[in-house]
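We modelled the chain as a single entity of 521 amino acids. Its sequence is:
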Amino acid sequence: MGSLGFWRLAQADPGWIAAVDPDGAEHTAGELLARANRLVHGLRGLGLEKGDGVCGLMPNGVDGLVLYLAALQAGWYYTPINWHLTGPEIGYIVADSEAKAFFVHPRYAREGARAAEEAGLDPHRRFAFGDVPGFRPYEELVDGQPDTLPEGRSNGATMHYTSGTTGRPKGVRRPLAGIDPDDSCELQTFLLTLFGMTPGRPAGGSPQAHLVTSPNYHTAVTQFGGTSLHMGHTLVYMDRWDAEECLRLIEKYAITSTHMVPTHFKRLLSLPEEVRERYDVSSMKWAIHAAAPCPVPLKQQMLDWWGDCIWEYYAATEGGGTIASPEDWRKHPGTVGKAWPITELLIVDDDGTEVPPGTPGTIYMKMTGVDFEYKGDREKTERNRLRGFFTVGDIGYLTEDGFLFLSDRKTDLIISGGANIYPAEIENEIILHPKVADVAVFGVPDEEWGEQIKAVVEPAAGVRPGPELAAEILASLEGRLAKMKWPKSIDFIDAMPRDPNGKLLKRKLRDPYWEGRGGVI
């Protein structure tokens, strides 16, 4: 293989500023390399072996990056956990991933502690970056450990959890190749080269920098940030999204790439013109976006402002995808692009028969040489496959020349600010309320977030609908469901529309909210 991969680059140039924390603290590659090495030695002392799992409940920043780098060179699976979740939701992931160590930041101490108890995790395997009652200090694990490269290094992987439309989230687990970590990470850089991205430390050239704008527990955020690092780019972390701060960081660090969702574009474009003009964003070469459909006018405004650096793609945690260059999109406004060279697309009807170009159907993808399974759920893994292709249930069509357009999202999936939210999980909690006879949850239009969560409730017999009942239902979700999943509003209905077999006719409820919008998306 060549000369990419964090560990190779860090040994060749330990003084390279590899990451910048949200507070502005700069960290060299040599420092990160030493920290990741000490962590591997410490966890091996705890008995971790190849194929084991590690979980982190961490904000954006270098501490979480060290967990990632340790796992990827020791042959472990690293699962970054959504810190919006409640203790029981986090605990399920810690237990299901069979984590042999769980790391928590003090910011999430309360839910992290609840999670560790829920998972039944040995207190000896709980670690905190700071003071968290019931957790061992991180320093206790690494102090006195050597900072040399560990013996028997082997590639690890991230294992992100993706929610299903029913039941609990599932870990997307890929087989480990058992190869050199740098070689493995160099192979991953193939994705970024599709966008034309280049190594960040060219001889005599300017260093490149990647701005991390979203929580690192998202698959794409980890993928694009981590892979940028393996190409030698500096990672600059934001702790929370702020539009003007984003522009300030782009100018200060001469940011060359970032990964965003359309909600970020909306917030940036909402800034007063004098604020937008205050910052130089000309260093940006690859402003890559995905995760939610981007309204054509919004993207056009971003192209007018930032120039032809706005790239789009469509993909899934499970693997495979499409890519649309700025030029592609200008010629085909609204497209999410053409298949990656290692991806095949298949559009089928309800019978699994391929449909002709221009005809909407369920989108199936296949990624050459890459396989996955939903951890512990072979049935779900097989159910979502068709002749070697898989689907996440999205609807779309292909043009004659191979450009993909999304016509609809999964029937039930809500995409709010780029986050996937699954109504069944919310419905399962609300239906437990004694004053609720029936409930349906779905997405309705939201100018800023794309969609917001709406619940329609059929009250129990004799229960009076109204604001008081709505408030009571929402209050019952406290501690049981992450607030990002709470309905923004609750409407009431006398009787839920169901067919003779009892199946909920959710479209009858949802369609009126989307009238005149050209389809639910």
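As a brief sanity check on the tokenised model: The chain has 18 helices and 29 strands. The first strand starts at residue 17 and ends at 20.
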